[in-house]
Write a structure and sequence with these properties.
Blueprint: H1 11-21, H2 24-41, H3 48-72, H4 74-77, H5 95-116, H6 119-140, H7 147-151, H8 153-167, H9 172-195, H10 197-202, H11 208-212, H12 214-232, H13 244-266, H14 271-296, H15 298-315
Helix pairs in contact: 2-3, 2-8, 2-14, 3-5, 3-6, 3-8, 5-6, 6-8, 8-9, 9-12, 9-14, 12-13, 13-14
């Protein structure tokens, strides 16, 4: 039985409903990783027209994918308490309206990115939409506990978009950025799944905690986190696009991440620990992306060179 919430009667209310369909909090994290890739590919001196255009079209493309996800999942969103107030299950936006909105966003993203930047980055944005909609939402989400692992490739595409926007190609370093997000995704989403396991069980979505239990999920989170730390350092060597500042931040952030995951591993049924891992995983990715930007910032390079020269003089 559909629960109908009060209709939105104002223009701003309607705008808010459509914004809610795009899941803006998820998009923000995607834009941060895109910015990090643009910053690295441009060696700390990005073309602002390329950066801003890519962020705008990335917002539209991700918003399109998220809207289609909301459209496809409206049946289970109607059942879960935490999602019943979303615009489609609440009856504030009709499915046809949502689909039209998603199509407009996808077409606009491709057109503007192709015109202002390049076709490769535009095609990659569309690849992100297709992977999220077809591979994750349609194929894997309701059929496999590995849905997040494979479907997580969609969230790892934005750094490829950022790199391609600057260089017009995809180097090995771009794929390392992809790998970082790809490996980060399971610990992030499985921690969330541990928090809301009952919701997923209620609607028959086979998230790993539902199928395998909390203990095995915590083990998998630990394994992926252990893999994430050395993967993040590949940007230092052999890629060489970042230096000591990023390496220090990556090791520090990774160490804190690992500490929190070990706590969860010791008490996998403790929801507060799962929530701590989930929240920190967001902070980790944001600060890691910031570390990339700071490391490539020309002024930061000047400071580092001065410090190195002073250290050499002191110890010499």
């Amino acid at each position: 039985m559909q629960v109908l919430w009060p209709q939105t009667n104002t223009l701003w209310g309607r705008v808010q409903d459509y914004i809610q369909l795009t899941k803006p909090r998820i998009i923000l994290l995607l834009l941060i990783t895109t910015t990090g890739a643009v910053w690295l590919a441009s060696q700390g001196e990005p073309d602002m027209d390329i950066l801003l255009t890519t962020l705008v079209t990335g917002t539209w493309a991700a918003g399109s994918a998220n809207t289609i996800n909301c459209l496809y999942d409206r049946d289970i969103d109607q059942i879960m308490v935490r999602t019943q107030r979303r615009p489609i299950p609440a009856g504030r936006i009709r499915p046809g309206q949502a689909l039209g909105f998603a199509v407009v966003l996808a077409v606009a993203a491709f057109g503007l990115q192709t015109w202002r930047v390049n076709v490769l980055s535009a095609l990659l944005e569309w690849a992100g939409i297709l992977v999220y909609v077809l591979v994750y939402t349609h194929w894997l989400k309701r059929s496999s506990p590995q849905n997040i692992v494979i479907g997580g490739a969609a969230g790892a595409i934005p750094p490829l978009v950022g790199w391609a926007a600057v260089t017009g190609e995809l180097s090995a370093c771009a794929w390392i950025l992809f790998a970082i997000i790809f490996i980060w995704t399971p610990p992030h989403f499985w921690a969330l799944a541990l928090m809301i396991r009952e919701d997923y069980a209620q609607v028959g979505v086979p998230m790993l905690p539902v199928v395998a239990g909390s203990e095995q999920t915590a083990q998998q989170i630990l394994l992926y986190t252990l893999l994430l730390i050395p993967t993040s350092l590949l940007l230092v060597y052999p890629c060489g696009v970042v230096g000591g500042l990023y390496a220090l931040m990556a090791l520090t952030l990774g160490g804190i991440f690992l500490y929190k995951v070990f706590q969860l591993f010791a008490q996998p049924e403790e929801v507060k620990l799962a929530r701590s891992v989930f929240k920190y995983s967001i902070i980790y990715l944001m600060l890691l992306s910031l570390g990339m930007g700071l490391d490539r910032w020309p002024l930061m390079h000047t400071w580092q060179n001065v410090l190195v020269q002073k250290a050499v003089h002191w110890w010499g």
